[in-house]
Structure formats: structure tokens, C-alpha cells
Amino acid sequence: xxxxxxxxxxxxxxxxxxxxxxxxxxxxxxxxxxxxxxxxxxxxxxxxxxxxxxxxxxxxxxxxxxxxxxxxxxxxxxxxxxxxxxxxxxxxxxxxxxxxxxxxxxxxxxxxxxxxxxxxxxxxxxxxxxxxxxxxxxxxxxxxxxxxxxxxxxxxxxxxxxxxxxxxxxxxxxxxxxxxxxxxxxxxxxxxxxxxxxxxxxxxxxxxxxxxxxxxxxxxxxxxxxxxxxxxxxxxxxxxxxxxxxxxxxxx
Length: 252
What we know:
By secondary structure, the protein is an alpha/beta fold.
């Protein structure tokens, strides 16, 4: 089963502890620092649109891009003024024109498990950015995969559903696999829970690999920050922001 097909139904339920408002403020601060306070912004791997909507409410015209029809279906259940949703693979996305910035949060870029695909995503982003436009994306760090997720099992139970997450991290390949078993409450019969299984893969990218991919994709690295402190990354940083600038187009 493809990632996020059945999990889409309970994604927001289990993600209610994610600090989306803090992440929004971080993104707004980064965009403002690079003088992008309005205009069109694309959200890669937008999922159910939680960040897309927050940025739209902050004054940006938004394009939400995700390859899951199920996730986008949930996103479009919310008011979408100023938002265009596109069901596309970020490794081959297409826009009708350029945008002021591209953002990607909630470790969407870690799902790009092939290095060549990562370079292609960066190349596409560079192509669709306005001259001097900004690409901001977060990543789970290798430290997080090694020390926090590792070969652990996580579980959570809610009234509407529950999950068991069995995690495995391969240090040699940098691939993190997590097997999800989901129990989702039936809407018509609350006493009945349907079982689903999914397998997700992510890749841990070392900073040097990210720098190399940005160079090969044609972008200039501006800074890499600890996503919790908004200061330079440390050895124990668990999530980081990468900020890069468009290269190649001339300003009008």
C-alpha cells in the first residue's frame, strides 16, 4: 500500500502534537529576513494542508503540492481561498509560472530517498523560483534517526484510531523504514476498527550531501539552522532548516 493512503484518514489526529504554529512563525521569519513578505509560495509535500492554510492566512497566495490524492482530499475539505492544490510528485512537479518561494516541512524531503531525485527536486525548485527566490525545507537529521528513532517501536491510542510504529534505521544505507499498523474506527459502526498496514521509507542526509545536492541542483546555500532554536546546527540537532537561493535568472 502506498504511503499515506489509509493513514490520511487519521493523519491530523495523530499529528495534533506537531507545533505547526511555531513552524509557521519560523518560516515567516525566514521569508521576511530574505524580503519575501508577499506573493506566490509553493508548499511541497503539503499533505492535508495545515501549513499551506497557515501561510495563506498570513497573506501569501499558496500552491499546495502533494502526490497523495487522499491527503489532498482532506486538505480540500477546508476553506481554500487563495490556495491551489496540485496532485503531483515533487520529483517531477510542474507549475505554470514562477513563485517567490518554495517551502517544504514535516520532513517531506526525507522521503526523497534517492540522491539523484533530491538533486532533481532542487533543480525543479530553482527553475520555478523568481529571480533570487528562496527555498526553505526541513529535514530530520542523521542524529535523530540514529539516536531517537533507531530500532524502536512507538504506539499511540486514540478514541478514533490507534497505530503501532515499528522503526528500523540502516546506518550503512541511511534508509529509515517504519512499518505502520493502523486501526481506524468505522464511521458507521463505532465499535468496529479496520486494520491497515503501511511501510514508509525516509533517508538521512548528512549536511555535506545536502550542500553537494544544492550545488548540483544549481542553487546557492544561504544557511542551515536548528529548527528548534533557529541557531546554527549542533551535533545533537534533530531537525534542521535548509535555506537556499535561486540562481540563474536575471531580475527584471
